[in-house]
Amino acid sequence: MTSAQAGQRTMRGLGWALVSAAAYGFSGPLGSTFLEAGWSPGLTTLMRIAGAAVVLAPVGVVLLMRHPLDGPNARRVLLYGLAAVAGTQLCFFSALQHLSVGVALLLEFLAPVLLVGWTWLRTRRTPSVTTLAGCVVAIVGLICVVDPFGPQRVDLVGIVWGLASAVCVCVYFLLPGGDGEGHVPPMLMISGGMVVGTVALVLSGLAGFTPFHAGAPTASLAGTAIDWWLLLAMLVVLATVLPYVSGILAIRLLDTRVASFVGLSEVMFGVLAAWLLVAQIPTAMQALGGLLILGGIVLIRRAEKRAPAAPSELAVEG
Questions:
Q1: Rounded-to-integer distance, Cα 65 and Cα 296, Å
Q2: Selection from 227, 243, 174, 207 nearest residue 34 by Cα
Q3: Domain locations in the chain?
Q4: What is the predicted pLDDT for the residue at 62?
């Protein structure tokens, strides 16, 4: 691959990563409308993931017929559904029972730093000064955006759940791998993962871990009363299917570390979406945090450009 082709590949990857982060950013405001209308977090999450599984089912069936899953790839899809789909949601909601939202988010979005550490351990190569500086700048920006210094609840159980959600996010970035032979097609990985995630969430609900109860048939979004099914369609298509699909495409085009740090911009996009949809105006500190996150991404990207690594290099082998 020529340098020009590599540059084009990277630009496409960054574009998909930003689309994914922006779409994920809408999940908070859309999900919060269900919670404010009295819907339980467990049922809201189940409807979101199950809806995505239904939307992607036709594509998944066609791909499964063309690319039957062998043992290693079947385990890869199973782990993706359990960790990257269901695990992230369940661990984060469990953390929220013990921590404030800001602290829980901060722990979950430590995933990029964990990935840098994973790369360090696996390759035995010390990260460059630029990479480490990018980590610090991006995390400081994240702290500014989520503002964990306000009124908060912190205990050891919540910290464990928060770190567990960060590990699940790492799986989200590591498992898809590159485009090499033997890898699961992106849409098959996502559709299969959604089915696995749906089953896991149903079992979790039946076990009482994530209680299910429905709320009001309408909810308010941007000052307008909207039926629950229309809100659900937006949550499924805009905030689940679109970000998962674009995210997995980005991961296969970018170095895993770069993709994960671009994912930090989800928090910034979430603040903007909350401003547009639920009139939560961002503060000057949050704006500064957004700039710092972008600055950290630029530093990580510069470090990756100087010492490129193939996207599939960090993939977890089945």
A1: 42
A2: 227
A3: 21-210+227-307
A4: 92
